[in-house]
């Protein structure tokens, strides 16, 4: 004759419940990131299904700067396109400023152009027409220069934060040609950085989220 099974104590029932919850959490974590999934390497673009929270940096009226002037990159600012921290690659950084003074910072000119190609995707409710200024970093001097008047070298051996050609920027065509003569590539103006260039530099990412992407802002 088998001994009567004693009902579990309240403590035992609580521990069993916690163990069950732990198993469910572990299963969910495995489903989201299975053991054999390759981790995202540092400096690589995030998967398309990863949401990057990159709020704009508001204008500081006590800074003494005009609202549309280029500003220093906050250490905690994140690129709204790839999620990287532009302050860590300041020699490649770019920025865009809205009419209300809000600013977004980018890890490279490439990310800035991706953003301009579809502002509404990265900043819902806003458009490229809401921007009052766009800047890139001069590869030669490290100074901020207007993105729309800069000259870019496409296809050089220089590798930016994403370990790819990131459209090295220059204040003059002469400086850009000199750089291209040393590092290769072709010199192009702001208006020639079109969807085809972006797709070649960032395959499947630049315009993939828009079936009918708008033209780049001039």
UniProtKB/TrEMBL annotation:
InterPro entries per the UniProt record, alphabetical: N2O_reductase_NosL, TAT_signal
Record protein name field: Nitrous oxide reductase accessory protein NosL
UniProt cross-references to SUPFAM superfamilies, sorted A to Z: NosL/MerB-like
Superkingdom per UniProt: Bacteria
PANTHER family: HTH-TYPE TRANSCRIPTIONAL REPRESSOR YCNK (PTHR41247)
Organism: Acidovorax soli
Lineage: Bacteria, Pseudomonadati, Pseudomonadota, Betaproteobacteria, Burkholderiales
Any matching Pfam family: NosL
